[in-house]
Amino acid sequence: MVIRKIAVNTGGGDAPGLNAVLRAVTLSALRLGWEVVGIRDGYLGLLEMPPEEGLIPLTRERVRGINHQGGTIIGTTNRGNPFEFPVKQDGKIIAKDRSDEIVAAFRRHGFDALVAVGGDGSLSIAHRLCHKGIPVVGVPKTIDNDLSATFLTFGFDTAVTTATDALDKLHSTAESHGRVMVVEMMGRTTGWIALHAGVAGSADVILIPEIPFDLETVCEAIRIRDRMGRRYSIVVVAEGAAPAGAEVRTKGEKEIGREVRLGGIAEWLAGEIADRTGKETRSIVLGHLQRGGGPTSFDRLMALRFGAAAVRTLAEGLSDVMVALQPPNVHAVPLAEAVVGRRSISLDGDTIATARSLEICLGAPAV
User: Fold this and answer.
1) Domains assigned to the chain
2) CA distances to 92, 120, 141, 168 from 145, in Å
3) Among 34, 61, 86, 279, which residue has the least CB neighbours within 10 Å?
4) Segment among 83-87, 229-233, 252-256 with least mean pLDDT
5) Would residue 144 show up in a list of annotated catalytic residues for this protein?
């Protein structure tokens, strides 16, 4: 595979470290004599915009000084799946497969390969495009840390740091008023952010999707703290957590080409705790705060390593792979392995054991 010009895009939700990836990809590719172009807003720059708007030449000057910046200078979207693109027809929104348009535009602009930066949704799209003839190397990005085949994704450490800082601040106000604070965190169907931030931030209760919880167990943990003279409690709940036998809580209708939105568990849980314990209870949703801001030094370095590795992988002639952290090094793994399913928390793992050792309530007894 002869490479002279590559494209790079960022898809799905943003994550701290995206700009560091773009800088590493750009500088590594320019060093090999390749041209680098960013596709704006996932694939929308090829589908919906004229080239002067949708394609951004990435030069040394363009990527200078962006390592520490949050967000992505080429934009992103979670509404632009070319295989299920929403279009209006006869007054209704339907899904249309526009992937052939992507392939045609890719070839028309002279791209030889694509570096796709994203989570499981974006990388699933990249995997399918590779089977339509576009050479692809994926870079794992998600604050949720739920991608298979990699030990860590960049963005996770920053999200946990932000969430832990929020918990540190909530302790003082909760204690001042003798309140229960229920803090909802992102993570979709896994509890990586909630568990790590909850343990680091000295939460009293941590509820994650991997452990369906019993509401009375949660309330009794709060009552026990009251009897011990601890008049306040911090409850961390992942957005995808749910009581045993119940469905996860969602917001709005599912839109074409994107996953259903999760949310609302903290507000519901706060009401239940207040009713059952008589404690004044408040709910807080951290939401997109966890995505914002500059990356931590760990995420910055991880993103740079991934970006540089992606270019090295293309130079080696590999395609349909994702660069992955398999400590201590970054390796290429098949994209099919990376998108096979979400990586959940092991209930036999050390972090769960640590939480139980610290007498943190996980909503259910150990099994």
Assistant:
1) 5-154+295-338 (3.40.50.450), 158-292 (3.40.50.460)
2) 36, 10, 8, 22
3) 61
4) 252-256
5) yes
